[in-house]
Specification:
Layout lengths: L3 E4 L2 E4 L4 E7 L8 E7 L6 E6 L6 E3 L7 E6 L4 E6 L8 E8 L6 H4 L7 E2 L3 E6 L1
Parallel strand pairs: 2-11
Antiparallel strand pairs: 1-3, 3-8, 4-5, 4-9, 5-6, 7-8, 9-10, 9-11
Length: about 130
């Protein structure tokens, strides 16, 4: 069992920045592909970004490319999401997720079904 805890959400003005973190339990964190997802009120959960275990591969949804950066520190069992130039449409509950799958392509890791463990989420609100 992997326990994930997100931190760093809050209220920020449009154009501002936030850094989310997600701390994971367990000894095999470096083998997990980690993803960030978000869910706005009344909408379905949306993929945001993922990063492979060694940090060498990352991928983003088009709407956040150039503004968000996913990274990880395997020594600290933590994955981060640096969010810059935030927009009101980025307002959502952001959740991190861990995938134990060893093999998968971009399409696979962009979907909810790839992930075995989920955090409870942290609210990000961007005011206009």
């Amino acid at each position: 069992q992997v326990h994930l805890v997100e931190r760093g959400g809050g209220l920020v003005q449009a154009g501002g920045s936030l850094r989310l973190s997600c701390a994971a339990s367990g000894r095999t964190f470096s083998t997990y592909t980690m993803g960030w997802f978000r869910q706005a009120s009344g909408k379905e959960r949306e993929f945001v970004a993922f990063i492979r275990g060694n940090g060498g591969t990352t991928y983003y949804v088009d709407s956040v490319k150039g503004r968000f950066t996913i990274s990880r520190d395997n020594e600290k069992n933590t994955v981060y999401l640096q969010m810059n130039t935030l927009k009101p449409e980025d307002t959502a509950v952001y959740s991190c997720a861990a995938s134990t799958a060893i093999y998968g392509d971009i399409r696979y890791y962009s979907g909810n079904g790839a992930y075995d463990y989920w955090g409870q989420g942290t609210q990000v609100t961007v005011s206009s």
